[in-house]
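request received
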Amino acid sequence: MAPEPPLLTMSGITKSFPGVRALDGVDLDVQAGEVHCLLGQNGAGKSTLIKVLSGAHQPDTGTIHWRGDPVTLRSPIAAMRLGIATIYQELDLVEHLSVAENVHLGHEPTTAGFVVRGKAARASTAQLLHRLGHPEIEPGCLVGELSAAQQQIVSMARALSHDVRLIVMDEPSAALDPDEVDNLFRIVGDLTADGVAVVYISHRLEEIRRIGDRVTVLKDGRAVAGGLPAKSTPTREVVALMTGRNVEYVFPGRPSRAATLEEPVLEVRGLAREGEFEPLDLQIRPGEIVGLAGLVGSGRSEILETIYGARKPSSGQVLVGGRALRPGSVRAAVRAGLGLAPEERKAQALLMLESVTRNVSVSSMSRFSRGGWIDRGVELEAARAATRELSLRPDNPSVPVRTLSGGNQQKAVLARWLLRGCRVLLLDEPTRGVDVGARAELYAVVRRLADEGLAVLLVSSEVPEVLGLADRVLVLREGQVVHTAPARELDEHRVLDLVMEGSPVASASPAAGEGSPAS
Amino acid sequence: MPELTNRFTSRRGLLFGTAAVSAGALLAGCTSNESDDEPAANDQPAAEDKPGKEVTIGFAGPQADHGWLNAINDNAKSRAKKYSDVTLEITEGSNDTAQQIGQIETLINKKVDVLVVLPADGKALTQVGLKAMRAGIPVVNLDRIFNTPQAYRCWIGGDNYGMGLNAGHYIGEKLKGKANARVIELAGLDNLELTKQRTQGFDDALKNYPNIKKVARQAAEFTVESGQAKMAQLLQAQSKFDALWNHDDDQGVGALRAIEQAGRDDFLMVGGAGALSAFQAIKQDNGVLKATVLYPPTMAASAIDLARALGQGKGVSGMAEFEIPASLTLYSAVVDKDNVDTYMSTGFK
Amino acid sequence: MTQHVSPPRDGTDKTAPVGQPPSWRGMLVRADVRTLSLLGVLAVLILIGGITKPDEFLDTRNLQLVLTQASVIGVVTVGMTFVITSGGIDLSVGAIVALSSVWATTVATQEYGFGGILFTAVLVGVGCGLVNGLLIAYGGMVPFIATLAMLASARGLALQITDGKTQIVTVEGVLDLGERDAYVLGIPPLVMVFAVVTIIGWLILNRTTFGRRTVAVGGNAEAARLAGIDVRRQRLYLYLLSGLCCGIAAFLLIILSGSGQNTNGNLYELDAIAAAIIGGTLLTGGRGTITGSVLGVLIFTTITNIFALNNLQSDVQQIAKGAIIVAAVLVQRRTASTT
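response:
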């Protein structure tokens, strides 16, 4: 590193919100041309820190130096003027505007100050997209029509359309497939080679190892370690810093008894949805966890939602306990004993304004009511029992569900189905947005529920998760099951090979969505 | 929608459906208003002269969403029927300026002989009035006046200022000699100019009676509902007053209801416009309503008379001139117990 | 997902913990900040009324008057609160009140007497609500558009029935309910209906599965569907409920004004929405409060009353009404965020 002052120095940053001290004297320095990783569990203060850095929040105390000069970042625009761009996890694009319009939003190239030069905007956008390795995205195309991965590229193009010196990426790989992650890393490499600094936030330790230069670990609003070498610091040490424990991914042991004796509780016969996935046969017995592995767009979530009745199949049947469900009816599925923990917890599962109790009881209201009249005492006790069984924190089901961490929100969803007494649990990306420590706990919960006789169908984009938690794994490629095997007979490389093997589309084009009919 | 079909073929669904249908049939019968529904119209004799040249009169008015406007249409129609030499081309009433312009242009294209126009908005329809005049079609402008006299051959309408004036004089005479008399005013829609004129006339009349003071004024909206609501508040605000001037008999229905509900009868009330219900109450003379000042919908019948005269090139009988006048402001007669029978037939519902 | 330390969204939370076991005393202690601030606004208004017009304002008759005038719009607002809580909107309430009131007061209906008028008013309201509900829940129409269409058609039909004429009610049984003689212990029958509708509405929203489903559908329709709630049927019921409230309100209006007119219910939709929003019901759905809505209605009616008693004219009234809407919402936000 050159002896010149760091590109960015933040020192002693504190920030409090009513009832919460989000940042408690955090120091961070970032050099030009480095990838500086921020690690920390949910609630450690990462988001608040980058919001301070991007000008969205004002710190209560502390100083920020930019190239050695003290600065105040009053607004996102002020930060942008200095050359700080932020790509948030929840993308802030306007769906009904074109790619080029989004990229140039707020700084459109104009003639005479107000006539937008659309052609120039599209040309420079095309150039940016090319640089980002996605020349196939049309600048004139509406952002709403793009896949999540492509939208992220657009978001990045927008950041780069400014003269950017520091770029903050908040979990950029969360929605990406492995090859798209490779492309992302290539982009990051190009940027740092040009002297741009990258602040990179991720839950995935192996990514940080691959591209990170230095690591700052946050815990409870404090930087417990600053500027550790990313490549050489042992994983165990990083995990210990984050959690205060010495655990990495810990999967619970599989039961010794074979589950094959019992009749399958869930049976799927030739279930298909045209354009999304091919006819699928599947049986799950009580106590069994079956995993579905595949790329984004391979039809994983679609299969789960079709089994659950949220999508109507074009052919095939779903049987629970030997009885066929009315196709395309969530209510029939729920009545028969199916429960879904969907991929987008906040958008698809939780009532964010409501208490944990009401989120847990929503699917079993008839149990606490007589003639539509709810007995709230019984309801509260039942919700308390269900959340306690999953050790949901805090141990008070009256708090609003939105105050919970990601892992505990997921537990609230599981508690809903536990209370309902469901027989088959469908889990879609159960640990997305859940930090490392809480993941292990969730894995243990899922295994325990299975041991108690639940059948579980698990979908995850993280192959180790599927391999570690499931008993049996179905590998999907483009809506088709290409391989079925007990989890212990597979490893990560084998699965990735299967997922991509012999598929010219998947290997030739890095674009998500392309080649796969799902949208 | 499998759920829908399923539910509606269920037995419960069928039962419910049957109930709904029979209830619907019963309801449909209930929309009838026919039993004693005769259009209020003028019984004054039509012009006495013999049938002359055939005249086609085009008539365009606003949507009849108010009793008075409905009476305007009825008056025009029944008057035209009385002349064997008059054909009336009447348009669907509309409150939409653009639509009304379109309707009048259609009438111009049909080459009617004379136009009678009650504009939804006088100012906004001036241009189409000019257009008709330039096309050689004389226009009789009814009540809501165009911007320029060039747009009409003859204007005939009510006298809003005169309504207030006559109401004020009537009340003034009734309260003569009473020291410190208090009156209140229940006005119409305050964003209409005619409401301001009625209030002005009333205030000007009261200046002649130094013993009377106007102590309160609230504006309703020409509807029964608003009349009841505002009157109830006025009654609560003023525990004692001697007279009430209400701008409109329609809202007066609500006002009378509020008075009845408050159990008050210690004042006299003067209404406006000339609704049948008001006439009946005046005739019975057992309530507070003692008189109403006219804003006669019979003006539409007169407009037809004028249009016919214009079409046949005649003047108005009883006047020395060969031509009909350029403008006619109708007198706001005060109708009270003594003369109510004369006007009963003109009362509108 | 990243942190859970982001600040509470201002204005939208800080309600007492929800879902507690029933405890009346506990509920009083934890009384919602929002409700308290509304009561504060009302108290200030009462103070103003009491100072400016002590004799006329602080009077039993005036209390009866204010509550009576609040009854019609109040009943409509209770229905509207349910619809808004579910994330919908009902722009047709005023038109339904108009249609119900004229249909129930035609010469033919009046021949059936008291029962005929009541039955027709309620049935027309429910029928319009049913059409709204079917269009929205099963026809896939946006509530804004479906109820806007209902607004236009119902007003048109009301005009067609009346021809713009005022239909005067001659059924004594109906008229008598609006007279002082009908007051029970000083409470006008209209106010009793309003109170009963309010209490039933409160119980349904806060204590029944129907209320829970309404909140769930409004808070997150997709989550409600995936949790096994029949979202479409719930929507149908909600617009039916709103129609029913309009029918009841129309009957009250017939009693109050002694007539039916196609201009009835003018701009009720805006008054009801404004009262619900001021009361703290989220326009985006997911949270609704009957108490707040009723307080909102009372605030509006009290303002009108104070202005009329002080003989202020309608221009001033309208300006002040707008200002008070803004002030009430700002006060609530402030009190909600500082506690």
